[in-house]
Specification:
Blueprint lengths: L2 H33 L7 H25 L10 H18 L6 H37 L3 H6 L1
Membrane topology: Multi-pass membrane protein
Family: Belongs to the SPTSS family. SPTSSA subfamily.
Pfam families: SPT_ssu-like (PF11779)
């Protein structure tokens, strides 16, 4: 046997093991699609769902690793955080948002702030024009005053 044939066999064996590994990964992906019933979705829906799942899992891991550590009481901003948290809890109690799940709170508050921002934007854009038209229609023109 030549050195070349030994290397070719090793190379083919390595490629075969890499192919088996990728086939196994593909099989796991198909199992994931089957178990989560994602096989019946469009590819873009699958990508969206999988992205959301990865974000949720990574957020949970981040929270488990970093946010569960005891906060330092000596930080200069800790009293400010306590005041903000107190006001936030009072807001939740007054608006009855405390009975909702955290994701429901975020959804409701996001919709609320979106509506408030749209109303504010439209007020800044459209109200000056309407006030100008109303003032033009209701206030007499100077020449009309002098004619009478």
């Amino acid at each position: 046997q030549t050195l070349f044939s030994v290397r070719v066999r090793r190379y083919n064996k390595m490629l075969s093991s890499i192919r088996r590994f990728f086939k196994f990964i593909h099989w796991l992906y198909l199992q994931y699609l089957l178990n989560t019933a994602l096989y019946m979705l469009e590819p873009w829906e699958r990508a969206l769902f999988s992205t959301l799942l990865v974000v949720i899992i990574s957020t949970a891991i981040y929270s488990a690793l970093y946010k569960t550590k005891q906060q330092r009481q000596s930080a200069w901003y800790y009293p400010l955080l306590e005041v903000i948290q107190s006001y936030y809890m009072q807001f939740l109690l007054a608006s009855t948002l405390y009975v909702m799940e955290p994701w429901e709170r975020i959804l409701v508050l996001s919709i609320f702030f979106l509506i408030i921002s749209l109303v504010t934007y439209s007020a800044f854009i459209y109200i000056p024009f309407h006030i100008h038209n109303i003032l033009q229609a209701t206030t007499p023109i100077i020449t009309d005053i002098f004619k009478h």
